[in-house]
């Protein structure tokens, strides 16, 4: 959550308004225990991926994307695997 807060507040990053809104929404949901890190990562991935294209030199964003990818796959498999075996 701290990294998410840092990315949102980093003025050097070129983030779209949509990306900022999604980060803020997921941060609030995580803070209020309305979602977990896996699903938040799944929802944030497309926006942060696009932000990384615009901010290729950002070490903070690059490192955070590695974390997001790890958790995103957990959410993906949690959604897909139960359906596959019915």
From TrEMBL:
It comes from the Bacteria. This is Uncharacterized protein. It comes from Anaerococcus hydrogenalis DSM 7454.
């Amino acid at each position: 959550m701290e990294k998410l807060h840092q990315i949102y507040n980093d003025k050097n990053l070129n983030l779209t308004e949509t990306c900022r809104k999604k980060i803020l929404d997921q941060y609030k949901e995580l803070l209020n225990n309305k979602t977990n890190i896996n699903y938040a990562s799944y929802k944030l991935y497309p926006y942060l991926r696009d932000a990384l294209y615009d901010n290729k030199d950002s070490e903070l964003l690059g490192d955070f994307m590695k974390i997001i990818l790890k958790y995103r796959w957990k959410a993906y498999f949690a959604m897909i695997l139960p359906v596959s075996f019915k």
